[in-house]
Amino acid sequence: MREKSRSILEIKGEGIEEVEEIIRKIGVNKIKRKESSFSPENVLDLYCPSTPDIQHDFRQIKWTWDIGNSSYCISSHRPIVGKALVMGRELIHGEVKRYIDPMTEIQRDFNKSIAQILCKLDARIDRIDNEIENLEGQASKTKTMVDANQIISNPSLKKQKLHMYLHCFSGLQNLVDIGCRQVDLLDTFKEHGIRAHGVSTDEDSAKCCKQRGFDVERIDPIHYLERTDDNSQEGIFMDHFVEGVNPEYLAKMLNLCYKKLKHGYYLIIETANPLSVFHFVKSCDDGNNKMLMHPETLKLLLRSSCFREINVNFFSPISDYWLKSIPIKSKFANETEKTIVETYNSNIDLLNSIIFDAQDYAVIGKK
Amino acid sequence: MGLNRGLYAIFSLTPLKVSHFITWQSLKTDVTMIEIHQMVPSLTNGDALGDETLEICKILNLWGYKSYIYTNQMSSKCKDFARDYREYSDISSKDNILIFHFSIGSDMSEFVRNLPDKKIIIYHNITPPEFFVGYNDVFVDLATRGRKELAQFAGIADLALGVSEYNRKELESLGFERTGVLPFIVDLDKYSQEPDKKIMREFTDDYINFLFVGRIVPNKRQEDVIRIFYYFNKYINSKSRLFLVGTYMNMNKYYVRLNELIERLKLKNVYITGHVDFKELLAYYRLADIFISMSEHEGFCVPLIESMYFNIPIVAYNSTAIPIILHDAGILVNKKAYEDIAELVNILICDKTLRAKIIKNQQSRLKYFNKSETEEMLKKYISMIL
Fold first, then answer.
1. Which residue among A142, A218, B3, B316 is buried most deeply as judged by most CB within 10 Å?
2. pTM above 0.95?
3. Whether A316 contacts A358, CB under 8 Å
């Protein structure tokens, strides 16, 4: 009997019929382990030894460029024949040196030049890296200030999300707000008795929240979560945070969230919606954004981190810019006019939904 | 590896059996007149290629042929059985058969090409050079050179044999006209020896022992075995250990990186043994509960045969010659999903019925590699070019 599954494993041969059952068991056992608070790090990310370390090679060149051997010494411990032996060996050594030394010298000079060039390049790369870092810092600072101001000045826009968030976070005394981009939301949480602790790497966001009297810590969220106990958090809210991180970081972050959340509590991720063409183009201008994530991708990531009851909610449609439809008259002059108007309006609706779709969306997952 | 499998092969030479000799004599009356020699770039007792060369030499002598091994490098224990390859020009003849074991580029290739002897190439496969990039530049050069040199034998070799169908196909694609498969000739009887007592004493307990046997080289992907073990040890059963048995000579960089990985994962129970003697090798096989190969390039993989012999369930990554060697035996994984493989190992450890079925299939497969079967194949191939 042969069973085959290209996806994971193949077991052939007589008497083996339970391949599908084994694959199922593997899946079940993995989920069980995750549910019982085991949350293995992504082993792939831990370290990839097959990638040679360029710094190691560089150090090797810096340390070993000089191939000269000045420590060679001809001597003999024999008291009588020693002198003759030394003379003989020196003679041979001298003859060999005539051929070898010029080659060694050329190789040594070559090695030295290469090492010097690499050292200079290395120093230059360091300088360029520093400059890039400074420029990125400046750009990010400017952008964050602009965004924070916008958020504070538009509280009404954010409040419409409130009923959704209150459903998940109502009465919580231990909510973590990662990102702290919407101070007005923190305000509203406070009004509703929700005690939130802000975590942000951004100096200006943290400063702004502190000025408004919120408990905010300036720390990398992964470091923050790592130091908390497993199953200790009552809620986690990622506030326009995922668009600023890379996928590896996000995957690690989601696994940590799952590990740290109490069973039955929620993770909410609010982020910019790339399905809105207008908003997508606007977001491209934001230097902080590393990636805009499709709602389905984010859902999938939550699912793979073992969250359940995953929902997506869209909000803040850009209705101010909507293209206008033609008002429907009670009576059309003829069928052709009616068809033209209906087709036009249907196209306008379609365009509005594509171009001016909701600016943001939130994915909600339960542990 | 081990107490010199090759030496054992030579020392255990049994007296020439008359019945055997007569059978072969009936096929070839002038058998003793023909010389069949072997040439191999490096003869090291304990490695698969060295052992096979010594085994074939033993068999050819048994059949009544004059047969020596010619090589460029030999380990000290092989000095009595091998000669420098340059000496071969003294006895070279168009009537001789020369078996050239091909596994890496060397000056020997050109030497062999220019000899008038009838030539049989036994192709053990060449590891693609890209695996060695960043670890050993000499190996990158030798592997690159080896592939070029092999192609140059296409119109010259009288017969080209791959140690597996995978290798044979590669020969065919290079333009070799007469090709065949001659699996490694493994003398399974030698595995019945007593294993090393010290290792057996040290590790005989209720721990689950993972095993991989093979040189520490990047194509064998020992880091993937470590990752699987990490998951198993940390999340499934902490009473487990991993033995990575094999030499790391000439692969110091890779060895260092594996150790860095082990350190970073904070793993306590991983043992990279380095070169072991034969009795020690036997001990590791006797202790093993599971054999895991994540190798991405194998021309044959003798440890699979050894694991079949020791009734150790095999879980191997589906690559190159591995599925051909396993055929219907063991478990092939198509994807390096470390967590899944660790869970699979756990199932294999816990489910005695499944384990028994896997072992039974492995035992059936082992029959294909029976020494008498492979000897018959060798006999057939030699008769083809006589």
1. B316
2. no
3. yes
Backbone angles phi, psi at B229, to 5 degrees: -60, -35
Q: How far is residue A356 from each of residues A276, A281, A316, A322, measured CA to CA in Å?
A: 5, 11, 10, 7
Selecting from A8, A33, A57 the residue whose C-beta is nearest the C-beta of B337 gives A8
A168 within domain boundaries: yes
pLDDT range class, residue A195, cuts 50, 70, 90 = confident
CB contact under 8 A, B261 and A46: yes
- Mean of pLDDT values over B171-175: 95
- Collect all residues of chain A within an 8 Å Cβ-Cβ radius of residue B357: 13-16
Query: Distances in Å between the alpha carbon of B143 and those of A327, B129, B137, B149, B329?
Result: 76, 5, 10, 10, 31
Domain count, chain B: 2
Q: What is the reported pLDDT for A115? A: 85
Tokens 């899944």 locate to B340
Strand B159-162 and strand B82-84: the pairing is unpaired
The domain that holds B227 is classified in CATH as 3.40.50.2000
Per-residue model confidence (pLDDT) at position B182: 95
Question: CA angle, A29 as apex, A11 and B363 as ends, to 5°?
Answer: 25
What was the pLDDT predicted at A149? 46
* Distance from the A308 Cα atom to the nearest Cα atom in chain B, whole angstroms: 21
**Predicted ipTM > 0.85:** no
B339 → closest Cβ in A6, A10, A30: A30
Same domain, B85 and B59: yes
CA A177, A182, A185: angle at the middle one, nearest 5?
A: 75
What mean pLDDT do residues A109-125 have?
A: 87
Q: Does position A213 have pLDDT exceeding 90, yes or no?
A: no
Q: A345 is in which domain, residue-wise?
A: 154-366
Among the ranges A2-6, A292-296, B321-325, which has the highest mean pLDDT value? B321-325
If asked whether residues B86 and B217 sit together in one domain, one would say no
A197 in the same domain as A131? no
Across A21-50, average pLDDT? 67
> Given A89, A118, A143, which residue is the final one in a domain?
A143
Checking if the pLDDT of A290 tops 80, the result is no
Contacts of A51 in chain B (CB under 8 A): 134
**Same domain flag for A193 and A259:** yes
Q: What is the dihedral of CA B5, B7, B12, B13, to 10 degrees?
A: 120
Contact: A11, B257; criterion CB under 8 Å = no
> Could you tell me which residues of chain B have a Cβ less than 8 Å from any Cβ in chain A?
133-135, 218, 221, 223, 227, 230-231, 234-236, 253-254, 257-258, 260-261, 264-265, 318, 323, 327-329, 331-335, 337-340, 343-344, 346-347, 354, 357-358, 360-361, 364
Residue B241, min C-alpha distance to chain A (Å): 18
Q: Which tens digit of pLDDT belongs to each residue from B360-384?
A: 999 999 999 989 999 999 999 999 9
Q: Taking residues B278-300, report their average pLDDT.
A: 96
Q: Which of A6, A29, A49 sits opposite B258 (nearest CB)?
A: A49
As a whole number of Å, the end-to-end CA separation of chain B is 35
Domain holding B109, by residue range, is 5-187+370-385
A50 touches chain B (CB under 8 A): yes
DSSP B317-363: E--TTHHHHHTTSSEEESS--HHHHHHHHHHHHH-HHHHHHHHHHHH
- The confidence band for B295, taking pLDDT boundaries of 50, 70 and 90, is very high
Please report, for chain A, how many H helices and E strands are present, in that order.
Answer: 13, 8
- Indicate whether A129 and A186 sit together in one domain: no
> In the block, which residue shows the tokens 């199932």?
B347
C-beta atoms of B332 and A11 within 8 A: yes
pLDDT grade for B26, boundaries at 50, 70 and 90: very low
Judgement on whether residues A252 and A164 belong to the same structural domain of the protein: yes
Q: Which of A7, A38, A46 is nearest residue B265 as measured by Cβ atoms?
A: A46
